[in-house]
Each structure stands twice: as structure tokens, then as C-alpha cells.
Amino acid sequence: MNLKIHIHRITACLMPLFMWLTGLEGQDIHYSQFYSMPLYVNPAFTGNHECDFRAGLNYRQQAASFTVPFETYSAFGDTRIYPKFLKRRAWIGLGGHFYYDNAGDGGLQKTQGMFFGAFSQGFNSDNSLYGSLGIGLGLTNRSINYNKLIFDSQWDPIGLEFDPSLPNEESFSDRSLFYPDFNMGLSVHHLVNDSWMYELGASLSHITKPSESFFGENNRVEWKWIAHGGAQIIAADNILIKPEAFFVAHEGVSEMVFGGNAVFGRYGLRLHGGIWHRLNRDVIPVAGIEYNKLTLLFSYDINISKQRLASRYDGGFELSLVKRFCARRSTKREPCKFLEF
Predict the structure, then answer these.
(1) pTM (two decimals)
(2) Is CB count within 10 Å lower at the N or C end of the chain?
(3) CATH number of 3-157+166-325
(4) What are phi and psi of 156, to 5 degrees?
């Protein structure tokens, strides 16, 4: 048996272990531009923006240096309404979020659609300080293509190679499964003055701990906790600074991302730039452009962890597009206040 065959056999045998470790580190999808996917971060953000309607798209690719790239496609939209019985002290946000995730060689896919509703209540006379409670109800699908996987029982000791036509000798009960999901979150928004504001919040996902297993086992998706905070500060007439921090804990693994973006605006055009850090893992530069309330952002994860020897500092890239649709409303119908820049 030559060295090349040895290497192929060892690699194929270790691949299931790598897939397991990868899944352990990221049970749910995650974003570097979490601020561009607000409903995924916290249902309480539904309808909490300065315009009538908001919509966004996101594409993320990662792990390309290890295996077939992991890809995630996402979309969201939200608005808010003002029922007369709430008068000017409260409002309701409505929205939805959809994503599709394809993880590596095995065709392990996750698709989720979720509807969100949020109730916001002002705490002072002009509603510059208000709190929001949001919930999300959705349906999740998990599927896998076993034909794309290779198992140790398919090793042909005579031909000294893997033969996919050999039986895998595995017992699989499902190739596709569905389950309902339930999320909720809280947030506080405070416009301190005309120059700065801040937001704090937390959310909990998979509240019912739905069962997810291709082997007919009672494997539960554990709670996912998210805590986040951010501010917007007008440093000059044409400069806005947006520092933020994001923490998530799920399935015994945690992640923290912190940093900030700066926005420079002139002549109706805004340029975005920033730097972020995923603690002990990635440095994430961000650049983008905004015109007529359409924002395009690009970020790249530079892997600086111990995996950098294998990844060659390649972590993945992310692209987001967010559009806000605004129409004039009387102040009587629009009670919430946001920073104007």
C-alpha cells in the first residue's frame, strides 16, 4: 500500500470526526454581520427601525479551506403598525425571517422559516425610552444526502480503495425531518439626546427544545442564549460611530463578537467601514456603501486561531444588503424615536 493510499484512507476515516467537531462548534448558523440580520438575533427588534418597512438579504461562506464550503442564504423583512387602541404609547412590529444552510460534503441542510411579532411600550412622555418584547414561531427542516458520504465499511481491502457501491452497513431512520421552533426576546432602546442612543437586549431560541435526530433518537436541540448591546454616537456632522457586542451560548459552546463600524456621509452617499473580533478566532474587517437607504456591506473573517496553520488565515466572507423604505408620517402616528443622522 503506497503513501498516497494511506493518506486517502486516513483522511476519509477522520472526516466524520471533523464533521462532528465542526457541528459541535456551530450547532446553529451564525453571522459575522449579526447587526445586518436583526430578527435572527432578537425577535424584539421586529419593527424597531426608523422607516415604514425594512428588508434584507445575506450570503455567508465559510470553511472553504478545510472542505466543501459551508454556505448560508438568508432573507428578512419587517414593519410596524399602530392600532388605535394603543394610542401613542405603544406599537406592534410584524416580520419574518428565512434561511437555508448547506454544510459541507454530506449535503447536510437546514431550512427555516419564522414569523415574528413584537410589542413595544414607551416609558416616558416622548417615548425616547422604550422596551420591546418579541416572539418568533417557525418551522425547521433538516435533511441529509447519505449518498454523498463514505463509510469505513466501504473500504475495499483487495483493491485498496473506497468503493461507494459497497453497502454502508448503517441504519438510518430519516433523511429529512421537520419540527416547530419557538423563540423570544427582550430589548431596551434609549435615545439619550440628539447625539447618541443605545440598545440592550437578550433572546432565547429553541424554547421547547425540539427533537432533532436522523437515527430515531430523542436528541434535543438545547436552548440558545444571546445577549447583545450597542450604541450609535454622532461624532461630527458627517460621522456616525456604531460600537456593538454580541454573545451567544449554545450546546456547551460560546462565541463573542465585538467591535464597531463608522459611517461617513456626504452628498447623499455614506461610506461604511469597521473592524470586529470574534474572540480567539477571527479578525473581521468590514466595508460598504449606502445610498438612498440601501446599504451594501462586505466582511471577511481572517482566522487567527490555532486552526490558522490549516486554514491559512481563511475564515470566510459575508455579504449583506439591507433596504429601508420610508414614507412621511405625522408624529401622532409615529411615536417611537430614533437617532437622526
Answers:
(1) 0.83
(2) N
(3) 2.40.160.40
(4) -95, 105
